[in-house]
Amino acid sequence: MTDHLTANDIVHMNERCIRAYGGTFTPPENLSDEEVLNKVVEEAAAEQLQKPASKAAFYFHAIITRKAFLDANESTALLASRTFILLNGGSFHKKLKVVAQNEQQIPENAAGNQQIWLRLVAQTSSGALSLENLEEWFSRNTTVPKI
């Protein structure tokens, strides 16, 4: 059985990110649109996304692109996707890698774990990476038990 993140989990992650890295947290939940967050949580739990890597990629992509929070959507997406993998008994490879898909490098111009994460965030935020791109990247950079 897969454990999913709740809206409350993600709100707490957003608050933690702002406290750790700076930004503005507007009480009580820093949401720009509560319905957007609820929809993200609902869609992540849906049967269409069966693989944990696909679900993690979905959290990452949806939180960044749908902007449910007033601040720190990117760092919240990173924390949520990583937490989801760990919550379900998985792990990220010690050395993350750039992945080739249809002659595109995911992410582009990145070397080393920190730069790979930063580029994934920036390129997703700019619209350069699709959910499909992220699903491929997460599937090749994580090890998760079969559900």
From TrEMBL:
Q: Which GO terms describe its molecular function?
A: kinase activity
Family matches, as InterPro entries? Doc, Type_II_TA_Toxin
PANTHER family in the record: HOMOLOGY TO DEATH-ON-CURING PROTEIN OF PHAGE P1
Q: What is this protein called?
A: Fido domain-containing protein
Species whose genome carries this gene: Neolewinella aurantiaca
Query: What does the record give as the organism's lineage?
Result: Bacteria, Pseudomonadati, Bacteroidota, Saprospiria, Saprospirales
